[in-house]
Design brief:
Layout (H helix, E strand, L loop, with lengths): L27 E3 L2 E4 L3 H12 L4 E4 L16 E2 L8 H11 L6 H21 L14 E2 L9 E2 L6 H16 E6 L17 E5 L1 E8 L5 E8 L8 E5 L2 E4 L10 E2 L8 H9 L3 E2 L4 E8 L7 E2 L5 H5 L3 E3 L19 H15 L4 E4 L5 H7 L1 H9 L9 E10 L2 E3 L11 E3 L4 E2 L11 H19 L24 H12 L6 H25 L7 H22 L23 E5 L5 E5 L15 E3 L12
Parallel strand pairs: 1-11, 2-3, 2-12, 3-8, 7-8, 12-21, 13-16, 20-22
Antiparallel strand pairs: 4-6, 5-6, 9-10, 10-11, 14-20, 14-23, 15-19, 17-18, 18-19, 23-24, 24-25
C-alpha cells in the first residue's frame, strides 16, 4: 500500500470481480437510488425513497406489473384480527421455520407488519371487507393458528397490491422508459428530485462500484424490438435488489418466466454473501398438468385448504389426517412431504384437492382465479377433485442482509424473495412473503434516508474484467432438467452429487471454449439468463449437498432426520476467480457476530458436520 496525499495511506483499488460479458454501456442516467424489481418490495422501496426526496429509478425486467407479486393468490399475513397478536404470529412463524428463523428479524416482521399493511391500504390497496361492518375479511392458511390472512378479489391479492402500487408509482413519477419504445432513457438527472422514473423491459446485468468498493449503480440491457445493443447504466450510490425468486432453475414452478435468479447472481458477482439457498419451498398444491409439463404452472392457493378443502388420494382417503395436528393446514414443507410420501406409496404422480362441498357460488366468489385456471385446463372444481402435486414455489434463502436490508457491499440492499433476512428460516410460513417485502422495503428506505450515502463514481471500464464465459441459450433447459432430477423435493447425496457434476460440466465447457478458442455464447438476454441460472443452481446444489440432514423444505432421503448440529446457516460467496465458498454460522441467528468462527471451505472440499455450539 502506498501513501496518499498528506501521508495518509492510499486506498487500493479492489480486485476485479467477475461480471457478465456484455457490451460497454452506451448511455447513462443519474439517480440517488436505483431499485431493481417492481413487486411489492421494489415498488414500496421506490415510493418511500421518492417520498423522502430521493431521485429514484425503478428498473424492471418486463412490465411494471409483471413480477411475482401479481401471482400471489392467498394474501398477506398480519395480526389484524380481534384477539390476534404479533406474538402469536411470531410463534407460528418460528414453528414453520424449523429452528432456523432469526428471532430478531421475525420480531420486526410481526410487530411492524400490521401498520405496514395499513399504510399499504393508505396507498390504495383494497382488501376484501365484510359488507356489514366494513372490517377486513381474514382467512387461515397452513401453519397459522388464527385467521390473519387479508385477501383481495377473493384469490387475487397480489394483483390488487400490484395495481395499487403501480398506480402510486405512476402518480409519483415523471419519467418512463420502455425497451419497446424508440430512443434511450433521458440524460443525467432526468428523474428529478423526489420523483420516480421507470425503465421497463430491462435486464439488470451487474453492479457498478467505485474505487473503494462502494456501490455506484448498475449496468442493464433495455430490450427493444429485436435489439441486442441496448446496454446502459444507472449511476446511483444506493441499489436495492428486489428481483424476486429463482424458480426457473426447475422445470416446473409457480414462478413467472422472468424469475431466473438475476438478483442473487448479481450480488454474488459483486462480492455479497448468500444464505440458505438450499431451502426451496415446493408448494404442495400446484395444478398437475402431466409429467412433461414445464414452465410456470397454475397455483392452487393454500387458502383453498384454509376454507376447508381436503387433500385426498385416488381412493378419497384424507391422508394428512393423523400426520400433523393441523392436517391439511400443516406448514407447507410437511404437507409437501406428506403428498410425496403418499405418491411413492401408491406409485402415483399426483394427489387430489377436494373442494366440491364448497358449491358453485363459493368457488365463483372466493376463488374465481383458481376456478378459471382449472376450467381452462378441463377441470371443474365444483364437480370433481383437483389433481395437484408439489412444484417449486419460493426461495426461503437469498442474498444475506442485516435488519435494514444491507448486504456486505456498501450501498447494496436487498429485500423480498431475493433476500435472506432470516425471517423464513428453513421454511416460509404461508403469506409471510408479501409482508416481508413490505416491512423490509420500508426499513431499507429509512436507512437510505437517514444514512449519509456519499456519491460514488464507477471504476472506469479499463479497470474492470472483460466478463465471464456465457452459457448458450440451450443450457437453460439442461439446467432445469438437472435441478429437477437431482435437487427437487426429494434429494440425496447421490442425486445432488450427480447434479453438481453435471452443472460443473456446463461451467467447465464454457470456460474451456473461451480459454482455448476465444469463443463464448453471444451476449444477449437468453445467454445472460442461462449464465445466472447456472450460478445460482451451483450454489443451491452445493449448500444442499453440504447440509446432511432433513429440515424444513430441505428433504434429504439419505439423512431423513433433523440434526441440531446443523441448526445454523450456510453462507456462500463467490471468490474473485469464481470459486464457490461455503461457511457455517456459529448459531441459528443469521445476524450473529460470532459467525465468522464457522467453517470456511471451497465446495470442492467437503466439510464435516459442525460441532455443537458451546
Amino acid at each position: 500500500m502506498t501513501a496518499g496525499a498528506g501521508g495518509a495511506p492510499a486506498i487500493p483499488v479492489p480486485a476485479p470481480r467477475p461480471t457478465l460479458r456484455a457490451p460497454a454501456p452506451g448511455w447513462a442516467i443519474e439517480a440517488d437510488v436505483v431499485v431493481v424489481g417492481s413487486g411489492v418490495a421494489g415498488l414500496t422501496a421506490a415510493l418511500r425513497c421518492a417520498a423522502a426526496g430521493h431521485r429514484t429509478v425503478v428498473v424492471t425486467k418486463a412490465r411494471l406489473d409483471a413480477g411475482s407479486t401479481r401471482w400471489a393468490q392467498g394474501g398477506i399475513a398480519a395480526a389484524l384480527g380481534e384477539g390476534d397478536t404479533p406474538e402469536q404470529h411470531r410463534k407460528d412463524t418460528l414453528v414453520a421455520g424449523a429452528g432456523l428463523c432469526d428471532d430478531e428479524a421475525v420480531g420486526f416482521l410481526v410487530t411492524e407488519g400490521p401498520d405496514a399493511v395499513r399504510r399499504l391500504i393508505g396507498t390504495g390497496a383494497r382488501f376484501d371487507t365484510d359488507s356489514a361492518t366494513g372490517e377486513i375479511l381474514l382467512t387461515r392458511e397452513g401453519g397459522h393458528h388464527r385467521r390473519r390472512i387479508a385477501h383481495a378479489g377473493g384469490d387475487a391479492t397480489g394483483a390488487e397490491i400490484s395495481r395499487a402500487l403501480v398506480e402510486a408509482v405512476h402518480e409519483a413519477g415523471t419519467g418512463h422508459t420502455s425497451g419497446s419504445a424508440p430512443g434511450r432513457p433521458a440524460a443525467s438527472g432526468a428523474a428529478g428530485r423526489g420523483t420516480i422514473e421507470t425503465i421497463e423491459n430491462a435486464l439488470v446485468l451487474d453492479l457498478l462500484t467505485d474505487a473503494e468498493g462502494r456501490t455506484a449503480g448498475v449496468t442493464l440491457h433495455v430490450m427493444g424490438e429485436g435489439a441486442r445493443d441496448g446496454v446502459g447504466a444507472v449511476h446511483a450510490p444506493a441499489v436495492v435488489l428486489a428481483t424476486g425468486g429463482m424458480g426457473q432453475v426447475f422445470s416446473a414452478t409457480t414462478n413467472p418466466e422472468v424469475s431466473t435468479g438475476d438478483g442473487v447472481a448479481l450480488a454474488l458477482r459483486a462480492g455479497a454473501e448468500v444464505s440458505d439457498l438450499e431451502f426451496v419451498q415446493f408448494h404442495p398444491t400446484v395444478l398437475y398438468l402431466g409429467r412433461d409439463a414445464e414452465g410456470q404452472q397454475p397455483l392452487v392457493s393454500e387458502a383453498v385448504r384454509g376454507e376447508g378443502a381436503h387433500l385426498v388420494d385416488a381412493g378419497g382417503v384424507r391422508f394428512m389426517v393423523g400426520q400433523h395436528e393441523l392436517a391439511e393446514l400443516a406448514p407447507r414443507d410437511i404437507v409437501a412431504k406428506g403428498i410425496m410420501r403418499r405418491m411413492r406409496e401408491q406409485g402415483a404422480d399426483h394427489m387430489y384437492l377436494d373442494g366440491r362441498h364448497f358449491g358453485a357460488e363459493m368457488w365463483a366468489l372466493r376463488f374465481p382465479t383458481i376456478l378459471a385456471a382449472c376450467r381452462a385446463h378441463g377441470i371443474d372444481p365444483v364437480t370433481e377433485p383437483i389433481p395437484v402435486a408439489p412444484a417449486a414455489h419460493y426461495a426461503s434463502g437469498g442474498v444475506r442482509t442485516d435488519l435494514y436490508g444491507r448486504t456486505g457491499v456498501p450501498g447494496l440492499y436487498a429485500c423480498g424473495e431475493v433476500a435472506c433476512t432470516g425471517v423464513h428460516g428453513a421454511n416460509r410460513l404461508a403469506s409471510n412473503s408479501l409482508l416481508e417485502g413490505l416491512v423490509f422495503a420500508e426499513r431499507i428506505a429509512e436507512d437510505i434516508t437517514t444514512g449519509a450515502t456519499p456519491a460514488a463514481r464507477p471504476v472506469p471500464p479499463a479497470h474492470r474484467p472483460s466478463g465471464e464465459p456465457l452459457q448458450p441459450h440451450a443450457a437453460r433447459s439442461a439446467i432445469q432438467r438437472i435441478m429437477t432430477g437431482g435437487a427437487g423435493v426429494l434429494r440425496s447425496a447421490g442425486s445432488l452429487g450427480e447434479a453438481a457434476a453435471a452443472l460443473e460440466a456446463l461451467e467447465s465447457a464454457a470456460a474451456r471454449e473461451l480459454r482455448e478458442n476465444g469463443c463464448t455464447a453471444e451476449p444477449c438476454v437468453e445467454t445472460w439468463e442461462a449464465t445466472n441460472l447456472l450460478l445460482v443452481s451451483r450454489f443451491l446444489v452445493a449448500a444442499a449437498l453440504e447440509r446432511e440432514e432433513t429440515r424444513g423444505c430441505h428433504w434429504r432421503e439419505d439423512r431423513p432426520d433433523r440434526d441440531d448440529r446443523w441448526r445454523r446457516h450456510l453462507i456462500g460467496r463467490l471468490s474473485g476467480d469464481r470459486e464457490l465458498l461455503l461457511r457455517t454460522t456459529a448459531t441459528a441467528a443469521l445476524q450473529d457476530p460470532a459467525d465468522e468462527a464457522g467453517t470456511v471451505a471451497s465446495v470442492t472440499t467437503r466439510t464435516a458436520a459442525p460441532e455443537e455450539s458451546s
